[in-house]
Design goal:
Blueprint: E1 2-3, H1 7-13, E2 17-20, E3 24-30, E4 37-41, H2 49-70, E5 75-81, H3 90-106
Parallel strand pairs: 1-4, 4-5
Antiparallel strand pairs: 2-3, 3-5
Length: about 120
């Protein structure tokens, strides 16, 4: 399991499945490398640096716990933080991530976002 660092990888993940949950949005896209990779994005709209970093730490802990077991092999997984994600209970976030990954495994994503 490795971490996404290049912007191109994040943009490629945006072309894949999108599963929205109350605390986050999960993007899942095949990477053609045969390994599970993950990335985390939290924008400045969420809060100051302390809030954003706390949210990223929580997401990182979630992904490291759940992806080895339920992650899709050969796919990139990107979590995008939402405003309600910082105060959500950790167990609730874990449950939502497991549900989002099962939907992604079935190929059931939310409808694509409208182009600007």
């Amino acid at each position: 399991m490795s971490v996404l660092t290049r912007r191109a990888d994040f943009l490629a993940a945006n072309r894949g499945l999108r599963i929205a949950r109350p605390g986050f949005v999960l993007l899942v896209n095949p990477n053609g490398q045969g390994q599970v990779r993950y990335g985390i994005t939290v924008t400045k709209k969420i809060g100051n640096a302390v809030v954003r970093n706390r949210m990223k730490r929580r997401f990182r802990a979630l992904l490291r716990e759940i992806l080895p077991v339920q992650g899709l092999p050969g796919h990139d997984h990107v979590m995008i933080g939402r405003e309600t994600g910082i105060e959500r209970d950790f167990a609730k976030l874990r449950e939502e991530l497991a549900m989002a990954l099962s939907r992604a495994a079935q190929g059931k994503g939310d409808p694509p976002r409208k182009r600007r």
